[in-house]
């Protein structure tokens, strides 16, 4: 059993965090809404620390580095399709999971053509068409799909879901930090908000959710390479948990900021808005849960007690 | 690199424990705390059998009667025992934390007196911590140990004391400092429960008979040699003990076993059930896995001798809320059958009804969920401890 991340991966995460902070941090996301050069600056920063040298399909070592990069990128709401680029199918062609009925891709302008796939594995060329033009998805575009022969690999679909969960984990971790910082300094009724037990306990509950999600991300990343079945069950489970936990953490963090939580000069407002595509694409939480339940009914859900005891599950 | 397997020896141990439980206990065994004294007797016999095979104190050092097993083997034992309704009966408290606390803080005489009977499954311990006026605010406890000549006299009342009626020994927390000394004036004593001046009264409870008790201490004599650790330094021992206790019960293991047992019980009618409720079942499985991983992280850190206060409390919050979530999911899927007791033909001999009752206490026992949230938020916010 080895649950802690290797020191090399943690080092890489620290380097990525430092580089993104140096490039502007969440200001990059804030600026990108009106200035496309911010996205280019984000890419330049990520390229400088080795983004294009990582191949998450290559094995767990590279996948852990990719995951750490997605987590750190999420914590800055980096205006760039990190997971999509990490899973590119050819130079300049990122990969995204889509809902084939309503194909929408976040940060779609990063490429002229994408490779898209449904969770079932149907493959498409995807061409960005129109910006969705909303405050809660400032970089998302509808896409036109052209079917391709073949099926997206299970590995690609698992990695896309798990790296997406890491992205959301980073967003959630940053939201909790912002909430902690705000409640320590914001005073009402003559005392910091964090002196109120209900607020402290709410922060504690968010931390439990995020710590659990962090561990589930690690498990699911490991299982991506060790589960020999064709199932997406572990990847779906971590997406479901990311949707549950991060949605709630963002809500609580925004609430604790009071009216400031809606003001874009506060980072929490940017995080809440920019997190929405990741929370809703390619599936909302209800759809993820239904897919997960069906997958568990078919393939089971690994654990010490998941098989009948007569089989002596180990 | 990341690895979520426990290894061959742990897998073999799991299989061996399952065979032992299946061979030793009837299918309707639901733990030691029933109206039938045979259930307690069986758990005592089983504990001795485990001890005979070196499995009762698997991770204890050999010098104290253990098997020098890994913390992961110990984790397998915890999971298998709790999942199967704790066939060690009231032994787990002695194994999980009383023994380790005596190893860490006890004198040579205390180790020689107490560790062998715990390792052989012959001693039952209870924990005299909570008082009528000191629940979550444990540091305010007022049971008094007064110095009289060359010994101590202890007077006060404890409550919610599990196993007190069947225990041979008690780890008793008493105030040796001034009344308002808080956590800085508490000492621990290792007291035989048959000592003059101790009265035990059972408290009827939804957990079943023999579980909860009140204990009255009336000028109970204790010697210096019965104090665990230094005078007034009991809080530090309790804190370490409670960190072990928070992950000592593998609640997630019983949850996972019951969710799959339920699937098996309902196999012929599974697809007749509403998809929403089946989704809740799937969602509960995810929460069980999360609780298990949080517990494993504490084990990994304990293996590396790292502080685990924050992580242990996070794990406990997840495990106890998961217990209650699973209880509700199971009740929804079973419908009116969830109300049946064993004699009325309850599914799985009443295991689900038993779990629901125990789950209600999960967020209170061994430190309420509110106290766990205080510990977690204190770490998050960098606040000092109170009390």
Describe this protein's structure.
- The complex is a heterodimer of chains A (314) and B (387).
- With 314 residues, chain A is of the alpha+beta class.
- Chain A folds into three domains: 7-86, no CATH class; 95-152, no CATH class; 155-299, Butyryl-CoA Dehydrogenase, subunit A, domain 3, CATH 1.20.140.
- Chain A has ten helices and seven strands.
- Chain A has helices spanning 7-22, 26-32, 37-48, 60-75, 82-86, 154-185, 197-226, 233-256, 267-280, 285-299; strands at 95-97, 104-105, 114-117, 122-131, 141-151, 187-188, 191-192.
- In chain A, the strands form two sheets. A five-stranded mixed beta sheet of chain A has the order 1-3-4-5-2. In chain A, strands 6-7 form a two-stranded antiparallel ribbon.
- In chain A, helix 4 (60-75) runs antiparallel to helix 7 and helix 7 (197-226) packs antiparallel against helix 8 (233-256).
- The longest helix of chain A is centred in the middle third of the chain and has 32 residues, at 154-185.
- Chain A is globular, with a radius of gyration of 19 Å.
- The two termini of chain A are 14 Å apart.
- Chain B is an alpha+beta fold and 387 residues long.
- Chain B has helices spanning 8-24, 37-52, 71-83, 92-105, 108-119, 234-248, 251-265, 275-303, 309-334, 351-362, 369-381; strands at 125-128, 144-148, 151-159, 169-175, 186-192, 198-203, 212-222, 227-228.
- The two termini of chain B are 42 Å apart.
- The radius of gyration of chain B is 21 Å and the shape is globular.
- In chain B, strands 1-4-5-8 form a four-stranded mixed beta sheet, covered by helices on one side.
- In chain B, helix 1 packs parallel to helix 3 (71-83), helix 7 (251-265) runs parallel beside helix 9 and helix 9 (309-334) packs across helix 11.
- The relative contact order of chain B is 0.10.
- In chain B, strand 6 and strand 7 form a beta hairpin.
- Chain B folds into three domains: 8-123, Butyryl-Coa Dehydrogenase, subunit A, domain 1, CATH 1.10.540.10; 126-233, Beta Barrel (Butyryl-CoA Dehydrogenase, subunit A, domain 2); 250-381, Butyryl-CoA Dehydrogenase, subunit A, domain 3, CATH 1.20.140.
- The longest helix of chain B has 29 residues, at 275-303.
- Helix content of chain B is 47%, strand content 13%.
């Amino acid at each position: 059993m080895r649950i802690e991340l290797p020191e090399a991966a943690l080092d890489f995460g620290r380097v990525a965090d430092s580089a993104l902070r140096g490039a502007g941090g969440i200001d990059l996301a804030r600026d990108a809404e009106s200035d496309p050069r911010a996205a280019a600056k984000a890419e330049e920063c990520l390229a400088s620390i080795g983004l294009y040298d990582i191949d998450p399909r290559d094995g767990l070592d590279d996948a852990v580095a990719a995951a750490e990069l997605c987590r750190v990128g999420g914590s800055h709401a980096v205006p760039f399709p990190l997971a999509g680029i990490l899973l590119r199918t050819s130079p300049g062609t990122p990969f995204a999971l889509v809902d084939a009925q309503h194909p929408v891709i976040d940060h779609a302008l990063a490429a002229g053509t994408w490779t898209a796939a449904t969770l079932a594995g149907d493959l498409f060329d995807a061409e960005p068409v129109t910006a969705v033009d909303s405050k809660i998805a400032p970089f998302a575009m509808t896409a036109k799909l052209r079917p391709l022969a073949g099926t997206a690999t299970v590995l690609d679909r698992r990695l896309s879901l798990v790296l997406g969960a890491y992205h959301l984990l980073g967003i959630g971790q940053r939201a909790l930090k912002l909430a902690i910082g705000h409640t320590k300094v914001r005073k009402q009724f003559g005392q910091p908000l964090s002196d109120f037990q209900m607020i402290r306990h709410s922060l504690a509950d968010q931390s439990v959710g995020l710590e659990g999600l962090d561990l589930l991300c690690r498990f699911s990343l490991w299982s991506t390479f060790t589960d020999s079945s064709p199932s997406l069950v572990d990847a779906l489970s971590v997406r479901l948990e990311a949707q549950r936990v991060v949605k709630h953490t963002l809500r609580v963090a925004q609430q604790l900021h009071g009216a400031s939580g809606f003001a874009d000069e506060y980072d929490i407002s940017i995080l809440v808005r920019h997190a929405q595509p990741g929370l809703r694409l390619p599936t909302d939480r209800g759809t993820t849960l239904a897919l997960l339940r069906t997958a568990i009914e078919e393939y089971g859900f690994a654990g010490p007690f998941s098989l009948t005891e007569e089989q002596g599950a180990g | 690199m990341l690895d979520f397997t426990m290894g061959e020896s742990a897998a073999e141990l799991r299989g061996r424990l399952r065979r032992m439980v299946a061979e030793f206990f009837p299918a309707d065994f639901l733990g030691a705390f029933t109206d039938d004294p045979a259930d307690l007797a069986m758990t005592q016999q089983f504990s001795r059998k485990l001890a005979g095979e070196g499995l009762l104190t698997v991770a204890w050092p050999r010098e104290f009667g253990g098997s020098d097993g890994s913390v992961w083997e110990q984790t397998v034992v915890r999971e298998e025992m709790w999942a199967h309704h704790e066939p060690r009966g009231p032994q787990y408290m002695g194994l999980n934390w009383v023994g380790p606390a005596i190893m860490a803080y006890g004198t040579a005489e205390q180790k020689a007196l107490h560790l062998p009977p715990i390792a052989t499954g012959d001693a039952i311990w209870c924990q005299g911590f909570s008082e009528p006026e000191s629940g979550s605010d444990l540091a305010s406890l007022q049971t008094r140990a007064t110095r009289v000549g060359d010994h101590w006299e202890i007077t006060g009342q404890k409550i919610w004391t599990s196993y007190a009626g069947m225990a041979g020994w008690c780890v008793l927390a008493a105030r040796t400092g001034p009344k308002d000394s808080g956590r800085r004036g508490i000492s621990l004593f290792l007291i035989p429960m048959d000592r003059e001046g101790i009265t035990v009264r059972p408290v009827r409870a939804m957990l079943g008979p023999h579980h909860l008790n009140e204990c009255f201490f009336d000028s109970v004599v204790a010697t210096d040699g019965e104090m665990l650790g230094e005078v007034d330094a009991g809080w530090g021992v309790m804190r370490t003990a409670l960190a072990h206790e928070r992950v000592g019960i593998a609640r997630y293991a019983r949850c996972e076993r019951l969710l799959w047992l339920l699937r098996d019980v309902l196999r012929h009618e599974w697809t007749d059930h509403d998809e929403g409720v089946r989704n809740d079942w799937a969602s509960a499985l995810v929460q069980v896995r999360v609780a298990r991983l949080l517990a494993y992280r504490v084990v990994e850190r304990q293996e590396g001798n790292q502080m685990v206060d924050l992580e242990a409390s996070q794990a406990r919050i997840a495990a106890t809320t998961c217990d209650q979530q699973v209880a509700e999911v199971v009740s929804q899927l079973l419908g009116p059958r969830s109300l049946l007791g064993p004699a009325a033909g309850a599914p799985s001999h009443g295991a689900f009804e038993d779990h629901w009752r125990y789950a209600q206490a999960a967020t209170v026992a061994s430190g309420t969920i509110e106290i766990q949230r205080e510990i977690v938020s204190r770490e998050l916010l960098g606040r000092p401890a109170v009390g």
